[in-house]
Amino acid sequence: MDLSAVGRAVLIAREGRRLEAYRDSVGVWTIGIGHTAAAGPPLPRAGLRIEAGEADAIFTRDVAAFVRTVAETVPEPLPQHAFDALVSLCFNIGPAAFRRSTVLRRLRAGDWAGAGEAILMWNRPAAIIPRRQGEFDQFRTPYETALPRARRGDAQLVAAPVERPSSPSRARPGWRARLWDWLRAGR
């Protein structure tokens, strides 16, 4: 499995995008979209600045490791919304903590409800609780039912990214274009 476009958008919304290095809520130097020294270069430090495109490239590289961790450790089949929520959790707590988590133990035991509840156990510092609640809601709720919020209590849902066809030859015209073609043909 891979992180979906919706999962990527909600994870970016949870992490935020900051182009100047800062200390996060527990004092860890961070830059871009949740990038820390634990993920590799660049090493965030006071005064470090990056461009938006660089932040996106670093995030793409960083998130791949967390996607791989979740894909290798969770039992399949896993609904996309649940997989994306677990990648978000893993991104925040780290692969080692995810591998030894109660969330993963319960998933492997087939206890889906308990695994969701275990997401909420990762509640320190207290400022992280709305994010965990958002991950819990995302874990339980199919995207067809409702798009996720970055944090529970956020007024806005995370907007689903618009997916564009990869090549014009494969693109199917929308109903308006087909109707216009039909009308122009004099039917």
From TrEMBL:
Keywords: Antimicrobial, Bacteriolytic enzyme, Glycosidase, Host cytoplasm, Hydrolase. One of its GO terms (biological process) is defense response to bacterium. SUPFAM superfamilies: Lysozyme-like. CDD domains: lyz_endolysin_autolysin. The keyword Nucleotide-binding does not apply. InterPro entries: Bacteriophage_GH24, Endolysin_autolysin, Endolysin_T4_type, Glyco_hydro_24, Lysozyme-like_dom_sf, Lysozyme_dom_sf. GO terms for molecular function: lysozyme activity. Its EC number is 3.2.1.17. It catalyses: Hydrolysis of (1->4)-beta-linkages between N-acetylmuramic acid and N-acetyl-D-glucosamine residues in a peptidoglycan and between N-acetyl-D-glucosamine residues in chitodextrins. It holds the Pfam family Phage_lysozyme. Belongs to the glycosyl hydrolase 24 family. PANTHER family: LYSOZYME RRRD-RELATED, PTHR38107. This is Lysozyme.
